[in-house]
Design a protein that fits this description.
alpha/beta, 9-stranded parallel sheet, two-stranded antiparallel ribbon, 11 strands
Length: about 325
């Protein structure tokens, strides 16, 4: 009689239910010729953060958090286990040269797009500075771009005081000619979190700004629907940029710039689902999670849930 061993060298010992597929099981490493619905890339860069941040660790933590979710949506009675996520890995960051790192991010996102392996894309930051090279790459590949930005801050700081930082991506994009001000929508801007100079800059550039007061008065879904309709008439593709500090600190404690009075986790998920259902929405980045500041991966798990809403909402919406 063959002796059974409970030792399983090199194999996982995590419990596996034969009827449950976890989202992380749908990730496949990119191989030449590989095709899938979603392209995933990690942008583990946070050295330009103006506050102490280890957001460079977030891509691996968010990926690991996908194991907390199944591919089955009970709300829509649909299993998405056949949606393939092609993982292009993480960009190798230069240890000291900031501009070189930004260049590598831009080149790598462009390389992923040029593979033409996927319909839509998710970029995992990193601090918000990674949105500059990422959005630039999409603009160069697809043409006129519109951006919906979930954020407590405008991120249009001046470039004189510290160069390109996580507070400057949208100023860099606008002044570099990659994004028009009227093609940028900011949602969830928090009170007492920005300078008047940058408030005036958004007005001067024609940026559509919705504060938390606007969200409370109008509702985030109504705002999203209105701006999707407007942007879709003006641009070729729409890019979603999700700074997790838009979420109230009670729901996202792992952000370097947490604060009270932000949107709820449910508002974040529903607004992303509505956005992702639009045919012109091509990409989303998720930024500003510092796993070292998080508690039981609350913020990374919310980011993973946001990924699900993006990946599984094409031409459909969660009710």
């Amino acid at each position: 009689m063959e002796k059974f061993s409970y030792l399983q060298p090199g194999k996982t010992t995590v419990f596996k239910d034969q009827y449950v597929t976890k989202v992380n099981e749908c990730l496949f490493q990119y191989d030449e010729g590989e095709k899938g619905e979603i392209g995933l890339i990690g942008l583990p860069f946070s050295k330009t953060s103006i506050s102490l941040s280890q957001a460079s660790d977030a891509p691996k933590t968010i990926r690991a958090s996908l194991n907390s979710f199944s591919t089955f949506s009970g709300e829509r009675d649909t299993d998405f286990q056949d949606v393939r996520i092609i993982d292009f890995g993480d960009v190798m960051i230069h240890p000291t040269d900031m501009e070189e790192s930004l260049s590598r991010l831009h080149i790598s996102v462009k390389e992923m797009i040029d593979k033409n392996a996927c319909d839509r894309y998710i970029m995992l930051g990193g601090d918000h500075g990674v949105s500059y090279p990422s959005i630039r790459a999409f603009q160069e590949s697809f043409g006129k771009i519109g951006v919906i930005q979930w954020d407590a801050h405008h991120d249009v700081r001046n470039l004189e005081d510290g160069g390109r930082t996580n507070g400057t991506p949208f100023r860099s994009l606008i002044e570099g000619g990659y994004l028009k001000g009227e093609h940028l929508v900011q949602i969830g801007i928090r009170d007492f979190a920005n300078a008047k100079k940058y408030h005036d800059y958004t007005k001067e550039k024609g940026i559509s700004v919705y504060t938390m007061a606007d969200v409370e008065l109008t509702g985030i879904v109504s705002i999203i629907e209105k701006e999707l309709e407007r942007l879709s008439k003006l641009v070729d593709i729409i890019y979603l940029s999700v700074d997790m500090d838009v979420v109230d600190q009670a729901f996202a404690p792992g952000c370097p710039a947490i604060g009270p009075g932000g949107i709820t986790s449910r508002e974040l998920l529903s607004s992303i689902a509505i956005s992702a259902s639009h045919e012109k929405v091509k990409a989303m980045d998720i930024v500003e999670i510092d796993p070292s500041k998080d508690f039981r991966d609350i913020t990374s798990r919310l980011a993973a849930a946001a990924m699900l809403r993006f990946m599984y909402s094409k031409n459909k919406t969660f009710e």
